[in-house]
Specification:
Blueprint: H1 2-6, H2 9-14, H3 18-46, H4 50-55, H5 59-67, E1 74-76, H6 79-91, E2 93-94, E3 97-98, H7 104-127, H8 139-156, H9 158-162, H10 172-181, H11 188-205, H12 213-227, H13 256-288, H14 294-310, E4 317-319, H15 320-328, H16 335-355, H17 360-374, H18 377-386, H19 388-403, H20 406-425, E5 429-432, E6 451-460, H21 462-473, E7 482-486, E8 490-493, H22 495-510, E9 515-518, H23 522-530, H24 533-537, E10 542-543, H25 546-557, E11 561-563, E12 566-570, H26 588-604, E13 610-614
Helix pairs in contact: 3-6, 3-12, 3-15, 3-16, 3-17, 5-14, 5-16, 6-13, 7-13, 7-14, 8-10, 8-17, 8-19, 8-20, 11-12, 11-17, 13-14, 13-20, 18-19, 19-20, 21-22, 22-26
């Protein structure tokens, strides 16, 4: 049991059969030919040589699959992570020099260090059981980020697809401006090869979704490029890819300044990878009815990124395209993804000599198609029409993605999600029930007037009490004589909520309004008992159901008569109670104490004696 906790793949191996092997291996044969060209394209998005994308499809994929939670989640390079990586290299400087300006060997050392740091952050989050934090990132933020990243990817490939020369500017709008300014310098061979690649992929996909359409399209375009000698016509080629086992890599020597510069980009990549991986993992698990442990998946993704940093790969996360293909190809276990990582190495040996002749505009065409598919028009429509908050979050995050650096845009989206969560939590539903409400259908028809029944739905904390008081004190048409507070739909209560509830009860007593609580949840009742609120109210003012609370309220109000702003409560039989300490005029605490004593005598019954208490007063407007 303890070994399975640290090695989750052991449970899979214990029940692994020959049938599982056949299904998983066939799924890997389907996924790997599609994953290789995708990884090359994502490496180009990141601004590095395609070989580093292929290396990230090997050991990192295997490690993430073995230590993850979802059996169908396939990790590796993705478009969003690659975009953040490219943005990091274009904005982070080491010793006064941008990473993108460093020689490849020096630049890649920092890329590997970034992957290693990202993996350590994710493993730390998983060990701290923070796997559910991704639920706080709203759907509007993810839709906006995916849409903005799609446009950034498309803009970043314009120079390659159009065959333009010169340096490529950073940012969406500068890249668009550069393309328009140089329309007279378009290389039509480059543009034609990109268009041909897109047409071939779309046509081949119509044959079968399992068909390795991207790989075959790239092979055909490569053959066309070789036949027509497109290199002599100004078309850039991929160049040689070493067909060797991924070399061992190390981050640069420890430098506290460089570590500080890379930490925020690493955190941004870790957060983005966490959100994507957990969302895809939950979706894949739900398809087959599997259980899903988000914290364990974080550990798997973190270990995969650590493996990428140590084996010359770029960082990555869970990929929906590859994961869905594992499912549709008939994979049974996590070993299907493991076999995909193992098959990537021999495929590299076979394809490396051929890939060197591949035109770069062909990969640019693949990326243009990917960016188009990233735009989920239906999700955008839903976010725009759902609520004003969703619409504002969508537009602000989208604008931040196009204007700011991507890692900053991620933090803007996360901040907006947290603000949205706090806003929703700070505005729980506080409803005053009317006589025709279904919750009051079993109430007796002779309810005395003046019973104000309120229902709080959601989280009970100071924000909810503020909303409750606002509604209570603004009810001019039906002034309340007694407040019945229905807390059965409250699912969480904290110290702030308990304190605010106690203050609310005090203020109601100070206005001669008794309070009856309806508490059905055992957890909420225990919290109220530990904080002393139940003892403060006594048993006559606490009910488990709303009908019981209405009976208590009816019995109390039927014994109280008010005239000329004076309420008379019947006192219990027996010897008279000890006279209370005379209240200090204007002292709300003493006034509340007298109200509690008078209200308590009303529940005891009896006909002898009375207690006089100032009646309800309408609060002054402030």
């Amino acid at each position: 049991m303890r070994a399975a906790r640290f090695f989750p793949f052991l449970d899979t191996l214990k029940t692994y059969t020959a049938r599982d092997f056949r299904a998983d291996f066939m799924a890997a044969l389907t996924v790997t030919p599609m994953a290789i060209p995708q990884a090359m394209a994502y490496a180009l998005i990141a601004g590095v040589h395609p070989q580093y994308g292929i290396y990230a499809c090997m050991l990192p994929v295997i490690v993430a699959a073995l230590w993850g939670s979802a059996r169908y989640l396939a990790a590796g390079p993705t478009n969003a992570i690659s975009m953040v990586l490219f943005s990091t290299m274009a904005t982070v400087s080491i010793g006064g020099t941008l990473l993108s300006s460093l020689p490849e060997e020096a630049r890649m050392a920092y890329v590997f260090g970034l992957a290693l740091l990202c993996g350590l952050i994710q493993v730390g989050m998983g060990l701290a059981r923070l796997g559910d934090l991704a639920n706080f990132i709203s759907h509007s933020v993810m839709v906006a980020f995916a849409t903005g990243a799609a446009l950034l990817i498309a803009a970043g490939q314009l120079k390659t697809v159009l065959g333009l020369t010169g340096p490529k500017p950073a940012g969406f709008f500068p890249q668009i401006g550069m393309a328009f300014r140089n329309l007279d310098q378009i290389n039509y061979w480059s543009l034609g090869l990109a268009v041909l690649t897109i047409v071939l992929i779309v046509a081949l996909r119509r044959i079968s979704r399992r068909f390795p359409s991207t790989l075959i399209a790239l092979a055909l375009v490569g053959a066309v490029g070789a036949i027509f000698q497109v290199k002599e016509r100004g078309v850039t080629l991929v160049g040689p890819i070493p067909n060797v086992i991924p070399p061992f890599s190390l981050p640069p020597a420890f430098d506290i300044t460089a570590l500080g510069d890379l930490f925020m980009p690493a955190l941004a990549i870790a957060l983005l990878g966490t959100v994507e991986s957990l969302a895809i993992g939950k979706q894949m698990a739900a398809i087959k009815g599997d259980s899903f442990d988000g914290s364990q998946e974080l550990i798997g993704q973190g270990l995969g990124n650590i493996a990428a940093g140590l084996t010359s790969g770029i960082p990555g996360c869970g990929s929906f395209t590859r994961s869905a293909l594992v499912v549709t190809s008939g994979g049974n276990t996590r070993m299907g993804t493991v076999y995909s990582g193992l098959l990537a190495l021999p495929m590299l040996f076979v394809l490396a000599p051929l890939m060197s002749w591949l035109p770069m505009p062909a990969l640019g065409g693949v990326l243009l198609l990917i960016s188009f598919q990233m735009i989920d028009r239906e999700s955008i429509r839903l976010c725009l029409v759902a609520t004003r908050i969703d619409r504002a979050v969508l537009l602000l995050t989208f604008a931040a993605t196009l204007i700011l650096d991507l890692e900053r845009a991620i933090f803007v989206g996360v901040l907006l999600s947290l603000v949205l969560f706090i806003y929703k939590t700070a505005h729980p539903r506080v409803l005053r029930l009317r006589p025709e409400d279904p919750l009051l259908r079993d109430a007796t028809p002779d309810l005395p007037p003046g019973i104000a029944v309120y229902v709080i739905e959601g989280t009970l904390f100071f924000g909810a009490i503020h909303e409750l008081e606002r509604q209570l004190y603004e009810e001019d048409r039906e002034p309340a004589r007694l407040v019945l507070l229905h807390l059965t739909r409250v699912f969480w209560l904290d110290a702030s909520g308990a304190h605010a509830l106690a203050q609310f009860v005090e203020r109601c007593y100070a206005r001669s309004m008794p309070v009856i609580l309806v508490v059905g949840s055992r957890n909420v009742r225990d919290i109220l008992r530990r904080t002393g609120i139940l003892d403060y109210l006594s048993s006559g003012f606490v009910a488990e159901t709303i009908n019981e609370g209405l009976r208590l309220a009816t019995n109390l109000l039927n014994r109280v008569s008010c005239r000329d702003n004076q309420c008379v409560f019947p006192a219990p039989e027996g010897p008279p109670p000890t006279p209370p300490v005379p209240p200090v005029p204007g002292d709300p605490v003493a006034r509340a104490a007298l109200a509690r004593e008078a209200a308590a005598t009303a529940t005891a019954g009896g006909q002898k004696g009375t207690a006089v208490l100032p009646g309800p007063e309408k609060p002054k407007n402030t």
